[in-house]
Structures are given as structure tokens and as C-alpha cells.
Amino acid sequence: MTTSRIPASDKPVRVRFAPSPTGKLHIGGARTAIYNWAFARTMGGTFVLRIEDTDPERSTEENTQIILRALKWMGLDWDEGPEVGGPCGPYFQTQRTDTYEAALQKLIEADAAYPCFCTKEELDAKRAAAEQTEGGYAGYDRTCRNIPADEARARIEAGEPHTWRLKVPDDHGPVEFEDAVYGHMSFPIEVMDDMILRRTDGTFTYNFAVVCDDVNMGITHVIRGDDHLSNTPRQVLIYEALGAEVPLFAHLSMILGADGKKLSKRHGATNVEEYRDRGYLPDALVNFLALLGWSLDGETTIIPPEELCREFSLDRITKKHSIFDEKKLDWMNGVYIRDMGAEAWVQAAKPWLAQTNLEGSNVADGITVVPTPTKEEQAAAAAQLRIPGQDVDEETWQACLADVDDDAEFYQAMYPLVAERLNHLDEIPAKLAFLFWGDSVVLDEKSVQKVLLKEGARADEALAICREVLTNDDNPWDAEALEELCRAKGEEVGLKPKLLFQPLRVAVCGNMVSPPLFEAMMLMDPADVVARIDGVTAKVFQNEA
């Protein structure tokens, strides 16, 4: 079998990603793009982007732009294609009809293609009749293959509708080709009928157009999903008829959901932009998708794009179907978040930090107790895609974004509070909105009952002790110092740290689960911290409205 680092010929490696702009970039398509890009970079070759926009009803410019944005977001830069041009353009199939006409004419002149005048009704009737026999339908029966050239020409000139078919050689043996994943492949010629190249309406079939494009663009390796494996022997026949070199193929196994079924919307997000909008980092998604069917050494899991571009190899691709495990993606994204540093985090998380400011600054004044959501409600909220800034006017939103830029040091200080606790960036508002509450507090009802009103917990006493420390002007506003001073005061009256600090956490942050308490308080106005303690004390223990 041809190995990954040896081109199919002595030509420089040229690969292509050829999506159809009929929707958003699916996860499977993204993986195909990654493999082509990484292989081109590893081999010092060329990565071509070609848009197969031949579906007039579903192919749109908007969908093309969605695909381009998704590729750019993932960092997959292309050497030739839309927006960058190149020597083999145009890079849209609808603009390449003249090349298909030229290729068809070449086949006609070589007696490798012939016109077929069979109507759809005739072909359907033949198919139906054949399917009633024991052998079943075996493809087109070549009715028009031996029509004399003069007769065929006269019928065409008379305007009779016709297709053009490939004339598969009678003496052709099995159709064979090399696949970097599946090895040497062989298909019996008997299952290959004389396929249509051009339809009666003048449009060209996928199999013919894609081969013409790959030949004219000098593609040396075709890396694509294994749903195209059944097309490949037909395409090989077209390569041969055109006298072109057959590329090395690499067919990628299917990506399945956790239930072992083909990945679909029922498994959650299935397109790149939705993962972007949920706060996944592009490098993490590229890393994760690269490992769905390929491995570096069977052990390494964190492979940044720059390393992928040095180490990617076709011989490490597996035939086994891959399982899309979103929990593993969450873990991997968390690793990248922890490794990226505060400055890069603020830039990547800018929309969610602005949303955090927006949500935190717009809570009700005073102390509010809200019902604790059920597990089902929490799961539903987590599954809901919320685009930052979508529920606010543009002027307010731009002001929130500008605040992140203008006060970058403040936002960078939030990073160590949550870096170890984030799976993706859209979790930021729920974890950090309390920093923007001012002197107000949104109390979680369950936390009030389990911490502040728990019998024998001495929560009111704990808050009073902490308040005394925090309001003492002789004490530095320093996280470590204040925590130790509060701890010492608590020990004097027999309050263990948990009983001392949990009430303070609820009073300041609103619930029992929050980032490091005293470090978070350093990002708040001391007067607001004290006001929250006083407000919660009055609301919960003094029954003030």
C-alpha cells in the first residue's frame, strides 16, 4: 500500500476540499477539510478549496460564505480557491462548464463516449422489468452504444433529446485503485455500466465533473468520506478514458454518535458554527476532529494545529468508525482554555465577557431570592444556544464589547478564577455575572435553605465575623490576608472554615458554587461586598422585605 509520506507520483502533493454550499459545514466535512489541510502542510504541498455549487435550488452564496467563515475560524487557510485565486481557477463548478465540454469532446473524438437517445420512461420501464427477474437490474443495457455514427449525428442535428454516456471498454478487467486507508481495491467490471456523463438538459453528472476538476487542478491525493467509496471505480474509469493519472485515494470512515448511529442533529450540534457559538476554541475543535479516525501514536491526545501540520500521515488513518464523544471534546476544550493564558482568553472570550457584564449589570436592585432550577431545567438551559448580545440593542452591546477592550486588565484578572472550571466559553456568564451585581445579590433558594437557614449553622454569626474583618481599615484588601484573618476570628468562636466561609460565599456570590471567594472579592468594590453582606443579613435573618 502506498504510504502517507510518499506522493502518488513524483508530482508535488496537491489536495482539495470540495464542499457543496447547500448548508452549514458539517462536522464530517470539517474533518475532511482538516485532513486535507494537514496533509498538504505536512508534505509541503498545496491545499485547494473548490466549491461544488451545482445544486441550483440549494447552493447559495450565503452558504458559501458560511463555509468560508467556518474554515477561516478553524484556521484552515487554503492556497488556491475562492478569495485567493490560483492558476487552476475558477474554483466554482458552475463556472467550469467549458472544461467539462472540452473533456467530453476529447472522449467523443477518442470514441470513448456515445450519445444515448433512450427516454426516461424507456429506461424506467427496462429497470422495472429487470427487477422482476432473478438477476435483478444490472445497469444500462447499452441499447444506443452501437448506433452508427451517421445516424446518431443526424438524430442530434434533428434536435432529438439525448445524453452522453461513457463507453466502458469491452475488454476492461476489474477496476483497481490504491486507497491509503483500505489498501488495494478491486471491483468487478460487470457491475460498471456505461454511465451518463452529460444529461439531456446539458448539465454534467457529479462523477464526470469531479474527475475533470481533479485532473485539471492536478490533484494527486483525494481524501474524502467513505460514502464516496462506491463512486470511485466509476471515477477511475473516467480517469482512464481521459488518459489521466489516477490519484491516490484515502476514504475516511464515518463519524457516529455516542449511540453508534450516524451523527445527526439528535446528538446535539453537528456544524462548525454552532460549536464556535457555544464557546469552543478552534484549535481544540481541530485537535478533537483530527483524532476521529487518525492518531499520532495511539496515546497523545493534545495535538495543536502546528504539530498536526508537522506530523499528519495517511497511514495512521483507521478504517474503524469514530465515535463523537462530546464529553471528551469538553475535556479537551478545557485543556486548551487552561493553557491559553489570560490575554488570549480575554480576546477569545470577548463576546461572553461582554454578555457577563450585560447580565450582571441588569439584575434587580436589592436582594432577590430565585428558585433553584431542577436538573431537567439546568440541562435544557445548557442545551439552548444563546448568542451573546442577541437580546440587547446594538449601542448597548457595542458599549459592553468596548468595556472589555478598555478594561482588559480587569477582565484578564478573571481568568485564574475560572480557567480550571470552564469546559467552553459560553459558561462564563453563569460563573462570573456576580462580579457585576454592584451591591445587589441574586440568591439561589436552595443555597439559602442549606447554608444560611440551616439549623445550628450559625450563618448569621459567620457573616457578622467576616463583615468585621472586611470593614476594618487596618486590614489590607488582600485575598490571602483577609482569608487568614477571617479564619482566625472564626477559630476564636469555634466556627470551622466551612461554616464560616459558605455563608459568606452565598451572601457575596449568590450560591454555594462559585470561583475562589476571596480572589473574586478582589475584583469587586469593597463597599459592594459589605453592602451585599448587610443586605443578605437583613433579608434572611431580619426578615426585611
Main features:
24 helices, 9% strand, 545 residues, 13 strands, 3-stranded antiparallel sheet, elongated, mainly alpha
Give a structural overview.
By secondary structure, the protein is mainly alpha-helical. Helices cover 45% and strands 9% of the residues. Strands 3-4-7 form a three-stranded antiparallel sheet. The protein has a two-stranded parallel ribbon with strand order 1-2. β8 (221-225), α7 (232-242) and β9 (248-252) form a beta-alpha-beta unit. The radius of gyration is 32 Å and the shape is elongated. The termini are far apart. Mean pLDDT is 94; it is low at 1-7.
CA-based gyration radius: 32 Å
Estimated structural class: mainly alpha
Low-confidence stretches: 1-7
Number of strands: 13
How helical, in percent, are the residues? 40-55%
The quaternary structure here is: single chain
Shape verdict:
elongated
Strand content: 5-15%
What average pLDDT do the residues reach?
94
SS field, number of helical segments: 24
Task: Give, in spatial order, the strands making up the sheet with the most strands.
Answer: 3-4-7
